[in-house]
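Lab notebook, design round three. We kept the backbone fixed and only want residue identities now. Task for the bench partner: fill in a sequence for the structure below.
Input structure tokens:
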């Protein structure tokens, strides 16, 4: 056991913290809960992060870095820019697979909106997602997936707003899965702009 803490990196701890938040919410999260999740003692987390707030701030910063890295990965995995956009949208909210986990992560967002330090990281996530969505839409226009003249910047703002709203409405009506809802709503927004003369990747 003496060497185990050194074998668990911060990223693994932060992933565990996100999972715990999904189960119990940020208010009920404790260092002890997260430590048990990864097989450490709470003191190790105190040494690394200083406090529960320090851990949550590290998670917020980690989320911003993830938001920067995700677009490049999903783009590599799909031939179509629009398929990559669908993957970006669904994977960015993959941890919110149930209405309960959605509600618990939404509670974390409430902290982001009221605490300046957390807001800085939440805004970074929001801006990174917006840039990625706009870039994929612009690429889709260039590739002919979307009609020539489509305003990628304006459409990106609409897509981002729809994604946020789709999560909340899904958590309320609980019809289907969140991924299904996200795909459906994004497809609806994009539908008037599609270039129907070309084939698109289905997966």
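Proposed sequence:
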């Amino acid at each position: 056991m003496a060497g185990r803490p050194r074998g668990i990196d911060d990223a693994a701890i932060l992933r565990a913290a996100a999972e715990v938040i999904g189960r119990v919410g940020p208010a009920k999260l404790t260092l002890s809960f997260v430590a048990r999740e990864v097989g450490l003692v709470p003191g190790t987390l105190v040494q690394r992060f200083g406090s529960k707030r320090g851990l949550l701030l590290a998670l917020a910063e980690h989320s911003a870095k993830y938001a920067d890295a995700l677009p490049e990965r999903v783009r590599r995995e799909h031939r179509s820019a629009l398929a990559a956009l669908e993957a970006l949208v669904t994977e960015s909210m993959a941890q919110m697979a149930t209405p309960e986990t959605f509600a618990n992560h939404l509670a974390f967002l409430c902290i982001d909106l009221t605490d300046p330090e957390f807001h800085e990281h939440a805004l970074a996530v929001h801006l990174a997602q917006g840039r990625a969505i706009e870039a994929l839409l612009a690429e889709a226009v260039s590739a002919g997936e979307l009609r020539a003249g489509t305003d990628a910047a304006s459409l990106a703002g609409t897509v981002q707003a729809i994604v946020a709203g789709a999560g909340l409405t899904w958590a309320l009506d609980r019809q289907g899965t969140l991924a299904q809802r996200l795909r459906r709503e994004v497809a609806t927004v994009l539908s008037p702009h599609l270039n129907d003369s070309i084939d698109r990747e289905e997966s």
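Keep this in mind before ordering anything: The chain has ten helices and no strands.
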